[in-house]
Design goal:
This protein is of the alpha+beta class. Helix content is 26%, strand content 17%. The protein is built from five helices and twelve strands. The strands form three sheets. Strands 1-2-5-12-6 form a five-stranded antiparallel beta sheet. A four-stranded mixed beta sheet has the order 10-9-7-11. Helix 3 crosses helix 5. The N and C termini lie far apart (63 Å).
Length: 271
Amino acid sequence: MRAAISLAAILLIVSCRDAQRTFREPRTGLRFVLIPAGRFEMGSPATEKGHRGDETLHYVTLTKPFYMSATEVTQEQWTTVMGSIPSHFQGRNLPVESVSWFEVQEFLRRLNASNEGYFRLPTEAEWEYACRAGSTGSYSFGEHLSASVANYDGRAPKPVASFPANAWGLYDMHGNVWEWCADEYCPYSSSEVSDPFQACGSPYKVIRGGSWYFGADSGRSALRYTHEPRLRGFSIGFRVVRETPDSRGDAEEINKTAAFAGRRFIKSVFP
């Protein structure tokens, strides 16, 4: 009897721990996986095929864990929050695209009003760290990308999670649609940094991951691309970070900057 109780207790503990590694937002059904804190080398070496000058190698430490959505936000999830579909390509499980950075901020504001956590876009460093998932090569799957693991050089986006996840359970980090980041496009530091959030007065925001419309090189883990935050794009979508409780202050600072930048635009589009 005592052994049976002990076994039940162990199973309960394991179950609770597993539950803490994932989170499902109840309104949209968006599933999140827990990304551990850690240190990694961001950027790429000059010897990497496709290397660009803005990919300066430098160490980054992310001091706190965070949740990241396992998939790009779908059209069904966007519609649940916003009430309409802006996408060029239609399909409830396709990633939402043709959404500006400012429109994404409004989506996040409404999602946060549900009091199911604190949601925001990933910083560029968080995005690359999660994309790499412990890898150090050109892609999380190795030095080469193939059509069996990502959607690139194609004709349209595909339903989310159509390809294998990376080592941390994140789908479509290479290809399908570009993903908005919180940061402005700024030069990297040449020295080690902790929890970076880039704001330098740039008129551009960073997008990451490549897309169905671009070649495999666009999906390199280190590749940085840009887009004006007021503009849409039929191959640009996003995924979401959910803060762990002890990271709330950092998230508020990032979202405060975003809200200040986009307040007038958002009010004009979403009265």
